[in-house]
Amino acid sequence: MSSHYVGQELTLFAQAKNWKSYWSSEIRSYVAGEVLEVGAGLGANTEYLKTSNVTSWMCLEPDPELACRMRDSFNARPDLADCRVEVGTTETIEKRHQFHAIIYIDVLEHIENDRQELARASDLLRSGGEIIVLAPAHQWLYSPFDRAVGHVRRYNRSSLSACTPSNCHIERLDYLDSAGLLASIVNRLLLRQAAPDLKQILFWDRFLVTPSQLLDRLTLHLLGKSILGIWRKE
Fold first, then answer.
1. Which of 32, 59, 134, 154 could cross-link 40 (Cys pair, CB 3.0–4.6 Å)?
2. pLDDT tens digits along 14-72
3. Which residues on adjacent β-strands are paired with residue 185?
């Protein structure tokens, strides 16, 4: 992972509860059995995905301070206290660990060699299991904010598809948050603000995410400022 990524934006985007509810509803049916969450940060996404269908949950986080904060947060939550928090990356996990689902939520864009990362993840995946990636979309939206938080790139369908491991096939490759895409375009053309503040995050989350859920279906997930990729291991 990029050494520039220190997670400063995690607390800010943790407030986007409607957005987390939306994207998690799109992938929750794939999240079952033994689950690995890569780059889990503060663990703000785990509660949206961990259901009774999950038998074990391991969070990987390369930053020791974030991992410590996540562990403390989980210990205070009876529903998350059984989540295992490990400091490290997929490079540090022994291949004897095998998972039914491996999740990257706003993580892959931080990793320099993304193809190698997903290939390594596929080696940790059971046959029939899924790799799930949510990432920012469209390189033409790449901004000083992306650079500041350690994003190496943003994705489109072509570039994310190119990361497909040789032993997996694509189950789903869709854009999410079409209304948010329009807001991002307006910001880029008119406001030219490098980074969102809390008021903007809350406005987007409260007033744009719900319309996006309808618009995304109407546009067949052809538009959006985020992209969702799901691969199944052969």
1. 59
2. 889 999 999 999 999 999 999 999 999 999 999 999 999 999 999 999 999 999 999 99
3. none
Residue 39 near residue 62, CB atoms below 8 Å: yes
Residue length of the chain: 234
DSSP letter (8 states) at residue 190 = I
Sorted by sequence, the CB contacts under 8 Å of residue 29 that are 6+ apart come out as none
Return the amino acid letter for 109. Answer: E
> Two tokens at 13?
């985007």
CA of 137: how far to CAs of 4, 94, 116, in Å?
Answer: 20, 32, 20
Across 190-216, b (16+ Cβ under 10 Å) vs e yields eeeeeebeeeebeebbeebbeebbebb
> What CA–CA distance (Å, rounded) separates 202 from 75?
28
- CA–CA distance, 34 with 126 (Å, rounded to integer): 10
Specify the pTM.
0.93
Coil/strand/helix, residue 114: helix
What is the residue range of 63's domain? 10-233
* Alpha-carbon span 162 to 154, nearest angstrom: 13
The number of distinct structural domains making up the chain is 1
Report d(CA 107, CA 41) in Å as an integer: 9
Amino acid at site 230: I
- Report the C-alpha gap between 160 and 55 in whole angstroms: 29
Q: Which helix (H) or strand (E) holds 28?
A: none
Query: Would you say residue 90 lies in a domain?
Result: yes
What is the DSSP pairing of strand 99-105 with strand 125-136? parallel
Structure-block tokens of residue 173: 């490759």
